[in-house]
UniProtKB/TrEMBL annotation:
MF terms in GO: transferase activity
InterPro entries with a match to the protein in the record: Acyl_CoA_acyltransferase (IPR016181), FemAB-like (IPR007434)
Keyword Transferase: yes
Protein's UniProt name: N-acetyltransferase
One Pfam assignment: FemAB_like
UniProt superkingdom: Bacteria
Length: 389
């Protein structure tokens, strides 16, 4: 692929900047890459993104080719970056555009390759424009547009954008799309019992019964840092493979990815495991941010009622309260989270469509879709298990 070239900031008199095309996040040092963020989100860290690259989870035959965009100042310092991937399919994104691809193919166009601005396989809200300067964020977006137009890419898609950055995408003229996830909000709870006290009487009883049934006959441990040993990753790999094979057909992450994540960012990982007779039988993997706990993967080799809810949702609430975190983001989809105190929250993606006619069709679709999503969020909000009034 060819580099996107120079971009002029919108502000008159500003010096033009050059947006460079990289081959991998690993070509940058951890210090210079991480200096572009505030460290709150673990998924845009150098450690996480390079673990995906070095483990072969992205690149190669994965259909996720790293093409980060970068801006350096006159002294050669990295001042802005965009984690991006040339995509040959729409797998592992959690914002579904298969119908767009089908429509464009029926019209005689090639939807793939496309540009994906995201953290691979990770439906967690976070920064996508890694810079402290808004004008450089806009320059990165112009660079992404030029990259598409100069290399025959149909479109660019930025998914799970943190709310503070959405206006930059809107100012650049990208189309906005909304969806719904379920997040748990910490309203200053002193413990799980305090949280239960905010629920209706019926839901309190149900959650207590679910926790008792799930915990009966198993030992549950929360592991982080050096407490996570290779045998724990071996066990979790088995759980992950089983869940991945049933949900996606092929697990996205390689076994090496878990080892590298454990080596590079163990203090930002919370692994919740259930044991029977000293042997791990189920587990849930979470990542610890500055303000949030992010639930990612789960799996089990036993069929035990409510164990999924306990490991993924209730243990996450316990951990968030203990750490003083503001919320738990439990991943994509899952209406069953609603009854367990996780509330509907809007997520935003942004889309640049190169062909004017195709863009107009997508814009029309999104306008109609947004109305439906907004109505669904209102309806779901009325079904939360909290006491009324």
């Amino acid at each position: 692929m060819t580099a996107p070239g120079a971009e002029d900031p919108a502000a008159p008199g500003d010096q033009a900047v050059t947006v460079e095309l990289g081959r991998a996040v690993g070509q940058f040092t951890a210090a210079e890459w991480d200096a572009l963020t505030d460290g709150a989100n673990p998924f845009v860290s150098h450690a996480f993104l390079t673990a995906l690259e070095d483990s072969g989870s992205v690149g190669g035959r994965s259909g996720w080719d790293p093409v980060p965009l970068a801006i350096r100042d006159a002294a050669g310092r990295l001042v802005a970056a965009l984690p991006a991937y040339r995509k040959l399919h729409s797998q592992g994104e959690y914002v579904f555009d298969h119908s767009w691809a089908d429509a464009w193919h029926r019209a005689g166009g090639d939807y793939y390759p496309k540009l994906q601005i995201a953290v691979p396989f990770t439906p967690a809200t976070g920064p996508r424009l890694l810079t402290r300067e808004p004008r450089l964020g806009l320059a990165l977006l112009r660079g992404a547009e030029a990259l598409c137009e100069g290399n025959g890419l149909s479109s660019a898609h930025a998914t799970f954008i943190e709310p503070a950055q959405v206006p930059l995408f809107e100012a650049a003229g990208w189309l906005l799309r909304s969806d719904i996830q379920f997040h748990w909000e910490n309203r200053g709870y002193a413990g799980f019992a305090d949280f239960l006290g905010t629920l209706s009487s019926a839901r309190r009883k149900t959650l207590r019964k679910e926790r008792a049934a799930a915990q009966d006959g198993v030992e549950i441990r929360q592991l982080t840092g050096s407490d996570i040993r290779p045998e724990h990753w071996d066990a979790f790999w088995g759980f992950y493979q089983d869940t991945g094979a049933r949900k996606w057909g092929r697990p996205y992450l390689t076994r090496a990815a878990f080892t590298l994540l454990g080596e590079r960012m163990a203090e930002r990982i919370l692994l919740v495991l259930a044991f029977q007779h000293g042997e791990a039988v189920a587990g849930a993997l979470n990542f610890i941010g500055r303000d949030a706990l992010y639930g990612r993967y789960w799996g089990a080799r036993i069929d035990k009622p409510f164990l999924h809810f306990e490991l993924c949702y209730y243990q996450a609430i316990d951990a968030a309260i203990a750490r003083g975190l503001a919320r738990v983001e439990a991943g994509a989809q899952g209406g069953h989270k609603l009854a367990r105190g996780y509330e509907p929250v809007q997520t935003i993606s942004a889309h640049h469509i190169v062909h004017p006619g195709f863009r107009a069709a997508v814009a029309d679709f999104l306008e109609r879709e947004r109305a439906g999503v907004a109505q669904e969020q209102l309806l779901l909000g009325e079904r939360t298990p909290f006491r009324k009034g």
